[in-house]
Structures are given as structure tokens and as C-alpha cells.
Specification:
The complex is a heterotrimer of chains A (about 450), B (about 280) and C (about 300). Helix content of chain A is about 50%, strand content about 15%. In chain B, helix 4 runs parallel beside helix 7. The longest helix of chain B is centred in the first third of the chain and has 35 residues. The chains are: A alpha/beta (about 450), B mainly alpha (about 280), C mainly alpha (about 300).
Chain lengths: ~450, ~280, ~300
């Protein structure tokens, strides 16, 4: 035991040296930023240099980071007196991090880009963590600046709490080279589509990969299948009408998914894959198809795959119908109730809806979102994939279920779809479970009507 | 007699070989991780069990830079060292009081403390979160430190009480007769005698706080506050397909606890055994 | 014994200073408080108070954000008994307990016996076999989820390379394998502590018992059953209770490796409760679930200690 004293003191001293040594640079920068922000505050008092604090999702890759930088640059060009400070973080309501952040008493950002959807935004607005923007809408006439499809989605309630940032367009992304190699053409009808899956399977290629461990990702492909098999109207009925998940039409979709797993169209590893796992398999050409959104575009650029990947819509299984990409508002801007610089937030959101903004981003070859602004409708994006995605939503967009569900139904949706992919639950049971969740949500007062 | 000795030697040899093979097998995941951390993704897939083609540190550098491990390491160090110091400062006197000082309700209060030993963290983690929130300490390292200490206290007080109980009371009494105050007696006479227990306590606390996952997961929000465990977890979520990078991060996360273990190996093992047995 | 000495001492003191008895009393109380209070306050703030809060929350309906809570009595508990997933999770906890006991206790004891037989290098083996227990559960979880990976994990790569493709499973994706696979990882992370406890216990066995048995011509297995096991009774008790409590409390490994999936197949009470509270905002409902878990663990611990004290 005697030696221990020396050892302990040695270790403690070592740790202290390490920590102080490592910390001194960081702490000094901390101090610097602190004094910086102090100066900024002083200046703001005299009306010179002001800071807009943004909270946006974590970057997928460097390309996205650069895109944001050029956007901010443009904003500063227009508003030279405002500085922009970007923080990245978890902007999902589901993980509980965003509500916690807003409740924690830490000074909130001025404006937040969060995962959209009535079920998500209402969690924050119900308890007044974010503020209604009705006045701002009126003052800036934002209603006319937003694609009408998007505006309809966010203006159902008494108050409007958000400014939509982009429209999701989720479809089937495919590896062109794999399709070519095995003589598969992009299918345009039901039979061709199923035949294509079978051909790929027979040729020893994994047809579809899914990251079923991440609920939202398994939700993407199921949403795409619902759109194709049921048609938009019946999907709308499910969320905005009296539709039930136990309806034979919905069960049919679930049966199809179970069937695809059985037949090997959806690879059996999908059940334990996360979305990044699945994306990796797809991008490394180990699977032919992945259902995902335009977010993928920056990854394509990052890995120089722009020329060998494109997207197509799963053909409609309803006669005479054309399937649309599923979506809704994907990301949306909200303003915390305790935000200190609402006027800057207003300027920022106005900028997002402006033609200036759309001009910048759509001229980036690797841009990955369809802006929600009307201004963007008339601009043709430079990137090929985004071009086809934007074209496909010209006539409107389908519905990505995850965005439109209440908490209970969504959790059941995620879990039961994963169960379907793992062959752990029958389609009927799975849909019955989701309906049970939806009933609970209704009982808790959740409704989109 | 000689044959017996030979037999014994022979059986010792088989025992040695059996145990060595077994040890190699059981620790193989660690070796696998270390080897894989030097390989590219392709190499891990094509030759998972061989030595790496070259010993390059790309994965370590990549993980260190991409994964922010420096920040995580400092945060963990802050929470752990702070927690160890606090636990020692707070639990040892309390254990001492329970063991050596007499006061009304000694046993009752002690049983109340013991209750905490039986209580699983999982049962109270939700209220802890909301309480910390009302204290404005969610997403702060101080908050995690304080909660960690609070949760470690029942066992720590228990351990220190047992340690101090083995110290003869006469020592304290004679010191009192010499006119030394209670605290002076504690610092200069009793605490040095309780050193083995204190060392065990510090080792325990180090392991518990450094390796903890649940508290940081629940109580920390922003990435720059993450501990090494939480950082590794989020890193593997982001890089889940880059095995090489993940193993780099994993090995980085392993190193501190292994170093501490190797330095204190002996008292570590003994401390664990005595702590758990009491 | 504990009580009597201080009393004596008080008497001594009172002989010296009868007059200022109350003064001394107050001074003494302050001294004692200065020793006790810092610890007790921290304990009360971060354990006792949350414990009371946990019980309180569980009788309300609260989403964690609303300014007011609705009292609902035992409604949350009633709902729990009807909640298939919660009941399933409880069942998984039990399965986890049984599997951990099987995997952990006897193999570790046998290993300990082997190590205790080693004449030279005992320390080396003890230290070596303890090594996995030093790692954090985050490290263990990440490491093992890669080991079990269906495509690139070493297990399946190995099985495929020797032509046993059919045995290469998606270890964390199939209902039959997911919990056993998790328990193996958890055993790997925890057995070291029990090994050390067994070694300490073995050390204290009277060696002459074995010598006597040798003279009687007893074989190694009979010695193990008739001498080792009975002498290790106390250690076995401690180890078994610790294994059970650990199994009931499991969280980190499951959270990292499967998050309770696929389709609730590895859901334990702790993971279910975490999800309900922090991603579905069902704070009071989740708290009720965690109270159930807490009560089970506390009841078991107290019952076990009672049993131990009675039998010792």
C-alpha cells in the first residue's frame, strides 16, 4: 500500500498537468469569445454590430457546411449590420433534446431549424416554448412567398408557428450502374417495378436496403409504398380524415412490405441497420435501391457519385394514377418564445423565402433541398438529381407519414415497421398496433383536422 | 516424491497452457479492436484476423479530429476528478461519524443511507433530470458531477464507515484527552489509518464515474459537454459504417481506464474485492 | 458495544466540565453535523428527494413540460399492467437474470478454481482476466455491436470463410439470438468482478481440508463439490445477488447495441422507461414503470440480505 501514495499523487499531478495543459488554450479561447460577445453586446447597445443566433441540424458532411457558409455570406451582404452565429445540434423533438434545451433556461437561439411536422411543432407550441408568427406573416406577406402546398400544411391551426424551409421529396434512389449491368430499366409501371426487383434478386444483387433501426428511415420507404399502392387521397384520409390503419388498403401495403422481405427484395440485414449503415451499403454499390430524400445529394457529391445515382418515383399501383414523391415540410424555422432578437430572426426567415436565397442555393451543383419558397419554383437547379426531384413535385407532393403522426402512433409505426422487416410481426398485427397508438393520440387530443 | 513433484510440474504446465489459451480467447475482442484500428475498412473486411499491413495511425488521427475526443476526454476528466475529490471530502467524514462518533439516530440515519445502496439509478433518473433542470444545471458538467457524487455516496459512506470501524476507538479517545479537536484528530490520526479504504474508494469512484453512461446520456445535451462514453456512442452513430474509425475511437476511449488499471492493478483488484465483500 | 463506549466517554467528560454541559453538547452537535451534513445533504438532494419525486410523479399525468400536473391516482400503474410492451420488458428482465446466472456464476467459479491452483503467475492471470471489466460499457457496447455485425463482423466473416454460411446469423436481429448475444457481451464486461470475489473467497478456504480429502483419496470433482462449494457459500451468495441485481438494472449495453429492438425483442424495463420519458414525453407513466423496477430491486436486495443474515 505504501507505493500507492506515490502512484496516486503521481497520477493526480499527471492528470492535472494534462488537463491544465490542454485546457489553457481552450479556456483562453473561451475567454476570448466571452469578451468578444461582451464587446458585441456593448456595440449592440450603441446600435452597431448585432448577432443573430441560429441553431441548425448537424452537418452530414463538409459540403453542407460550405453551403451554409455561402448562404450566411449572402445574408450578411444584404444585412451588413448583422452578424450570424451558427450552432449545430440535435433538432429532433423525438430525442427530447430540443424541448429540453428550450426549457433548460439556457439562453435560446433566435431561430431554430427543426425537423418539421405538425406532431413535432405542436409539442413545442402547446407549452409555449415557441412563439406564434402570425404578425410576422401579415407584415411580410409571407403567405404569398411560400409554395401553397407548404403553406396549407402549416396553416391548419389557429396560429402559425413556423416558416417552412424545404420540401421533402422522398423517392427511390438507385445505382444507375447496377441497373445497367443487370439490364434493368427504370420501371414505369407496377409490373416492371416488381420484375426489376425480381431480376436484381435473381442476379444476386441486394435490391433494396433500409436502415430499419432508425424509425424515420423505415418510415420513408413505407410512406413511398403507401403513396404508390393507396394513392395520395387515401393517405390524406388517414391523417386528415377518418381513415384507419387497419383499413384493408393500408394492411395491403404492410403485406407487400412483409412479402418483399420474404422474397429478399428488402435485404434481411436491414432490420439491424441504421440509416447511415444502409446509406453506406447503397453508396458502396452493395444494394441497388434505397428509399431516401434529397438529403442524399450532398453525400453523392461528397463521394463523387453524382453521375451514377439518380432517383425515380415508385410507379403507382393504382390504375391511371401517378405517384408523387412523399414529403411534406421537412425542415422548418421556429422562433423560441424567449428569443432575444426576434427582428433578426424575422430578417433571416424573410431572406430564406427570398429569391436571393433560392438563387444561391439552387446554383450550387451539390445543393440537396427543395426550397419551400415560391421564388424557387421558377428557378431551375443546377444539380441533376435535385432537378428531377423538383420536377416531380411540381404537381404537388405525397405525404411522409412520420411527419403527420402523433407521438404514440409514430412510435408504434417505427417499431412495428421494424418488426415487419424482421419478420417479427404479421402485417395485420402491425397495423392494428399502429391504430392503437393513433387511438391513444386521439384520446390525448392530437388531431390534424 | 520426485515423481509427485514432476507430476505437479506437469499439471502446472497444462494449467498454464489452458489458462493462457483461455485468456487469449477472452481478451481477443480487445486485440481485435486494436488490430482493426490500424486497418482500413477494406482490410478489416477482407482479413479481419491478420496483423495490419502497415501500422498507420490514420484512424486515430481521424477519430481524434472528427470525433472531438479531446473535448470528451477533458469533460470526463473534469467530472471524474471533481467527483473523486468531492466523494473523498464528503463520504469519508460521514463514514467516520457513523463509525466513531455517537449521536442520536446514528443507526436510523445510517439505514436511510443504506437504502440508497439498494436503489437502482434507473428508478430515479427521470426525477433527477427534472430536478437538475429546476436547478438550472441540465447540460452542465457540474450538474453531472454533483449527481454522480450523490449517487455514489451511499456505497462510499458505507465503505468508509466499515473502514473507520476497524480503527481502534482508543486512538481517538487518547487524542481527545490530548486536547485535539475532532477534525484535527480526523485529519492527522484517523484518516491516515484509513488509507487502504480511501484508496479503494477512490478507485471505485474513478471507475464508476469515468465509465458511466446513463447519467451523461440523460443529463447532457450539447456535444461539447459530452463525456468520453457518450462521445464514443455518438461517434459510432455518425460513423457507423467506418469500422476503422470507430475502432480508433474505441481504443482511444479504452486507453485511460487501462492505464489507470495497470498502474493500480494490485490495489485495484484488492479494493474491488474488499469493497464488494463488505 | 458501539453504543456503550461513547456513553462511558460522555461520563468522563461530564466529570471534567459539569457546568458547561450544554455548551459542550451544542459544540459536539455542531462538530458531528460538520462531519455528516455535507454528505447527507448531497445524498438527500440527489437521491432521497428524487426517490420521493419518483413516487409522486407516478400518481400524476404529466408530460414533463406542462406547468400543472393532473392527479390520476394509480391509473399509471393500472395502465402498466395492460401494457404488452412493458410486460414483455419485465419478462426480458427475468430472462436476462436467468441467462446471466447460467453464464456468469459457474463458469467464473471454475475459472477462479483453476487460477487459484496456479503456483507462479497467479497475479498475472488474475489481472489479465479482469481486464475486460476495466472497460466502460460504452466501449464494450460499441465493440460487441461491431463483433456481431452481420456483414463485416468477425464472427460472421469467420463462419463464412470456413463454409458455415448458414450459421452466420444477424445476431442482434433475430428474436432467438438477440438477448443471448447481449447477455454474452454483458457477461464479458462483468465477470471479472465476480472472478475476483471468488478468488478472494477461495484464498480463505482452509487448505488442510483439501489435504485431508487427499488422504481419503477424493477426486478433484468430489473435492470441488464437498469442500470448495460449501466453503464459498457466502461468496456465492454475494455473487448471485450481485448478478441478479445487475441483470435487473441493465441499460447501457442494450441502449448502445439494440435500443431495445428489433420490435421490442430486447426491450428491458430500463430502456422502455427511458424511451417513454425522453422521447415520447410520457414522463409520469415512465416514472411509474421505473418505480416498479425500483421496488423489485429494493425488495430483492432487502429480502436477500435478510436471508443472508439469518443463515450466516
Amino acid at each position: 500500500m505504501k507505493g500507492n501514495k506515490h502512484k496516486i499523487s503521481f497520477l493526480l499531478v499527471l492528470l492535472m498537468i494534462i488537463t491544465t495543459a490542454c485546457q489553457s488554450p481552450t479556456s483562453s479561447t473561451d475567454e476570448q469569445t466571452k469578451t468578444d460577445s461582451k464587446e458585441v453586446k456593448n456595440e449592440s447597445a450603441s446600435g452597431n454590430n448585432n448577432v443573430l443566433d441560429l441553431l441548425i441540424p448537424n452537418y452530414y458532411n463538409d459540403i453542407e457546411k460550405k453551403q451554409w457558409a455561402s448562404v450566411v455570406e449572402k445574408f450578411k451582404e444584404i444585412n451588413p449590420d448583422i452578424d450570424v452565429n451558427i450552432t449545430n445540434g440535435d433538432v429532433q423533438v423525438e430525442s427530447g433534446k430540443l424541448p429540453t434545451l428550450l426549457q433548460s433556461g439556457i439562453e435560446p437561439p433566435d431561430v431554430i431549424l427543426m425537423n418539421a411536422g405538425p406532431g413535432r411543432v405542436s409539442i413545442l407550441s402547446d407549452v409555449n416554448l415557441i412563439q406564434p408568427l402570425n404578425d410576422l406573416y401579415e407584415k411580410n406577406n409571407w403567405k404569398d412567398d411560400i409554395r401553397s402546398f407548404a403553406y396549407d400544411l402549416i396553416s391548419k391551426g389557429d396560429n402559425i408557428y413556423e416558416v417552412p424551409h424545404m420540401i421533402d421529396a422522398i423517392g427511390m434512389f438507385y445505382n444507375k450502374d447496377i441497373f445497367e449491368k443487370h439490364g434493368v430499366d427504370v420501371p414505369t409501371n407496377k409490373d416492371d417495378f416488381l420484375k426489376a426487383l425480381q431480376t436484381l434478386k435473381d442476379e444476386g444483387v441486394a435490391p433494396i436496403t433500409v436502415g430499419a433501426r432508425n424509425g424515420y428511415a423505415i418510415g420513408w420507404i413505407f410512406g413511398v409504398m403507401m403513396e404508390s399502392v393507396m394513392g395520395t387521397e387515401k393517405v390524406v384520409e388517414l391523417f386528415y380524415g377518418d381513415g384507419k390503419w387497419t383499413d384493408p388498403n393500408v394492411v395491403q401495403v404492410a403485406e407487400m412490405m412483409a412479402d418483399w422481405v420474404e422474397k429478399g427484395y428488402i435485404t434481411k440485414e436491414s432490420v439491424t441497420q441504421t440509416q447511415p449503415d444502409s446509406k453506406f451499403r447503397f453508396l458502396s454499390k452493395q444494394a441497388a435501391i434505397e428509399a431516401t430524400g434529397t438529403y442524399l445529394i450532398t453525400d453523392l457529391a461528397d463521394q463523387k457519385l453524382e453521375d451514377s445515382v439518380n432517383m425515380f418515383m415508385m410507379p403507382s399501383f393504382v390504375d391511371g394514377d401517378v405517384a408523387q414523391p412523399v414529403g411534406g415540410v421537412g425542415l422548418t424555422w421556429v422562433v423560441p418564445s424567449k428569443a432575444k432578437d426576434v427582428e433578426y430572426a424575422e430578417k433571416w426567415m424573410d431572406f430564406i423565402l427570398s429569391e436571393d436565397y433560392s438563387n444561391i442555393v439552387l446554383n450550387l451543383p451539390d445543393y440537396n433541398f427543395i426550397p419551400a419558397s415560391k421564388a424557387s419554383e421558377s428557378i431551375e437547379p443546377v444539380g441533376e438529381v435535385l432537378k428531377s426531384a423538383m420536377k416531380s413535385i411540381e404537381d404537388g407532393s405525397g405525404y411522409n407519414p412520420s411527419v403527420f403522426m402523433g407521438v404514440e402512433a409514430k412510435e408504434a409505426y417505427y417499431q412495428n415497421l421494424q418488426g415487419l422487416v424482421g419478420g417479427l410481426v404479421t402485417p395485420q398485427e402491425a397495423m392494428a398496433n399502429i391504430e392503437k397508438g393513433a387511438e391513444k393520440d386521439r384520446a390525448n387530443g392530437f388531431s390534424l383536422k | 516424491m520426485i515423481t509427485r513433484l514432476k507430476q505437479l510440474k506437469g499439471s502446472q504446465l497444462t494449467l498454464w497452457i489452458t489458462l493462457s489459451v483461455l485468456l487469449l480467447f477472452i481478451t481477443s475482442p480487445i486485440f481485435y479492436a486494436v488490430l482493426a484500428s490500424f486497418k482500413s475498412n477494406m482490410e478489416i473486411f477482407s482479413s479481419p484476423f491478420s496483423l495490419p499491413k502497415s501500422w498507420n495511425f490514420d484512424n486515430y488521427i481521424g477519430a481524434w479530429n472528427l470525433g472531438n475526443f479531446k473535448t470528451y476526454f477533458l469533460n470526463s476528466a473534469f467530472i471524474t476528478i471533481g467527483g473523486m475529490v468531492l466523494v473523498a471530502l464528503v463520504a469519508a467524514p460521514a463514514g467516520y461519524a457513523f463509525a466513531q462518533l455517537s449521536f442520536k439516530g446514528n443507526n436510523l440515519i445510517f439505514y436511510l443511507v443504506l437504502l440508497g445502496m439498494a436503489l437502482p439509478v434507473q428508478a430515479i433518473i427521470i426525477p433527477i433530470f427534472f430536478q437538475l433542470k429546476s436547478l438550472g444545471m441540465v447540460d452542465t458538467l457540474t450538474g453531472v458531477t454533483l449527481v454522480s457524487v450523490g449517487l455514489a455516496l451511499p456505497f462510499s459512506i458505507f465503505l468508509m464507515r466499515n473502514t473507520f470501524r476497524d480503527v481502534p476507538k482508543e486512538l481517538r479517545e487518547s487524542a481527545a484527552i490530548d486536547g485535539a479537536g475532532e477534525w484535527r484528530t480526523y485529519w492527522s490520526i484517523m484518516l491516515p489509518l484509513a488509507k487502504p479504504g480511501l484508496v479503494a474508494l477512490l478507485i471505485f469512484t474513478f471507475m464508476n464515474i469515468w465509465n458511466d453512461f446513463l447519467l451523461p446520456l440523460v443529463l447532457l445535451i450539447s456535444k461539447e459537454k459530452f463525456t468520453i462514453s457518450l462521445g464514443l456512442y455518438s461517434f459510432q452513430g455518425e460513423q457507423s459504417t467506418n469500422f476503422g474509425l470507430i475502432f480508433g475511437g474505441t481504443v482511444i476511449s479504452m486507453i485511460p481506464s487501462i492505464i489507470v488499471y495497470l498502474i493500480f492493478q494490485r490495489s485495484f483488484v484488492e479494493g474491488m474485492a474488499s469493497g464488494a465483500n463488505k | 458495544m458501539n453504543q456503550s463506549t461513547p456513553l462511558l466517554e460522555m461520563d468522563k467528560k461530564s466529570v471534567f466540565a459539569v457546568n458547561s454541559k450544554t455548551k459542550i453538547k451544542i459544540k459536539k452537535a455542531i462538530t458531528i453535523a460538520s462531519f455528516l451534513l455535507p454528505g447527507l445533504i448531497l445524498y438527500a438532494v440527489f437521491m432521497l428527494y428524487p426517490m420521493i419525486d419518483a413516487v409522486r410523479y407516478s400518481f400524476f399525468d404529466w408530460d414533463g413540460a406542462a406547468p400543472s400536473m393532473n392527479f390520476v391516482g394509480i391509473e399509471n400503474y393500472v395502465q402498466l399492467t395492460k401494457d404488452d410492451v412493458f410486460l414483455k420488458s419485465l419478462g426480458h428482465n427475468l430472462l436476462w437474470v436467468v441467462l446471466s446466472l447460467t453464464l456468469m456464476v459457474v463458469p467464473t467459479l471454475v475459472l477462479a478454481v483453476f487460477i487459484s491452483r496456479v503456483k507462479k503467475g497467479k497475479m498475472f492471470f488474475r489481472a489479465g482476466f479482469y481486464l475486460p471489466s476495466v472497460l466502460s460499457l460504452a466501449v464494450v457496447g460499441v465493440l460487441w455491436s461491431k463483433i456481431y455485425d452481420p456483414m463485416m463482423g468477425p464472427i460472421n466473416v469467420f463462419l463464412k470463410s470456413i463454409g458455415l454460411e448458414s450459421l452466420a446469423k444477424n445476431w442482434l436481429g433475430e428474436p432467438l439470438f438477440v438477448i443471448p448475444a447481449l447477455v454474452i457481451a454483458s457477461t464479458w464486461a462483468f465477470y471479472g468482478l465476480y472472478l475476483i470475489l471468488f478468488l478472494a473467497g477461495l484464498q480463505s478456504i482452509d487448505y488442510s481440508l483439501y489435504e485431508a480429502a487427499d488422504i481419503d483419496g477424493a477426486g478433484p470433482i468430489s473435492k470441488f463439490w464437498n469442500i470448495t462449494i460449501p466453503s464459498l457459500r457466502n461468496t456465492l451468495n454475494v455473487v448471485i445477488s450481485m448478478v441478479i441485481i445487475h441483470a435487473l438494472k441493465g441499460f447501457a449495453l442494450i441502449w448502445i447495441m439494440t435500443q431495445g429492438g428489433p420490435f421490442y425483442m430486447s426491450e428491458l424495463v430500463s430502456t422502455y422507461v427511458y424511451k417513454a420519458a425522453f422521447s415520447m414525453n410520457k414522463v409520469s407513466y415512465a416514472t411509474a414503470g421505473s418505480v416498479v423496477l425500483g421496488v423489485i430491486v429494493i425488495a430483492f436486495t432487502i429480502g436477500f440480505n435478510y436471508y443472508r443474515e439469518r443463515t450466516e
